[in-house]
Amino acid sequence: MKILIIVPVLLFFACTQQPQEKIDGEWIKGTKQEKIHTIEKQFRGFDNTMVEIGYRYQELYWAGKDENWDYATYQIEKMKLTIENGLERRPKRAKSADHFLKSVLPEMLKSVQQRDTVIFNENFDMLTANCINCHSMEKVPYFTVKKPIYRQSPIRK
Ligand code: HEC
After folding, report:
1. Is 145 in the pocket of ligand 1 (CB under 6 A)?
2. Which of 47, 53, 136 to mutate to test the pocket of ligand 1 (most atoms within 8 A of CB)?
3. Exposed end of the chain (fewer CB within 10 Å): N or C?
């Protein structure tokens, strides 16, 4: 009778104790720790965030010129997401980003909802001043932000 119990129990352990399959990618290899390190390194830090913000800032500007308010709304929302994701990677930037996330972007969104170019332009200046402000707080004041002059975007009205 005992054997009837022992055999399934042994079988259960035999199954759970199997050595784990080692999974490597084409270039993401090594121990689990090394693999996580490689992935994190490839995601990059705040520079990547800012390259995207620089792009979205320009798109927002031209969206305002076109009075393409839906596209402007989209860009503001993506700016928020971009910064939030960036802070997940670089939490030490969170303090400087606080005002930008909680006040500057929501204000910008409100101005877009009013669908008024004059209000939009005023707020875009306020946005630009806050980009510069954060660069100063983060000790990279040489990233001087000015409104775009030339349009590169293929998204036009
Ligand atoms: C939370 C603070 C913060 C805010 C807000 C911010 N920046 Fe930045 N920005 C930085 C930091 C920090 C760097 C340098 C990144 C690094 O050294 O990794 C940077 C760098 C940049 C760069 C250079 C990126 C590169 O590697 O080529 C651009 C472009 C840029 N910012 C544009 C903007 C614009 C436009 C705004 C406003 C819409 C803005 N930033 C708002 C902190 C900020």
Report:
1. yes
2. 53
3. N
Q: Is the dihedral of CA 46, 47, 49, 53 positive or negative?
A: positive
Tokens of 95: 């303090």
Residue 40: phi, psi to the nearest 5? -60, -40
Q: What CA–CA distance (Å, rounded) separates 86 from 151?
A: 26
- Closest to 108 (Cα-Cα) out of 63, 152, 149: 63
Closest to 154 (Cα-Cα) out of 97, 98, 86, 71:
71
How many CB atoms neighbour CB 26 within 10 A?
5
Dig out the tokens for 6 from the structure: 């022992």
pLDDT per position as a tens digit, 67-122: 999 999 999 999 999 999 999 999 999 999 999 999 999 999 999 999 999 999 99
Closest CA to 43 of 90, 94, 97: 90
- Average pLDDT estimate for 128-134: 98
**38-59 per-residue burial string, b: 16 or more CB within 10 A, e: under 16:** eeeeeeeebebbbebbebbbbb
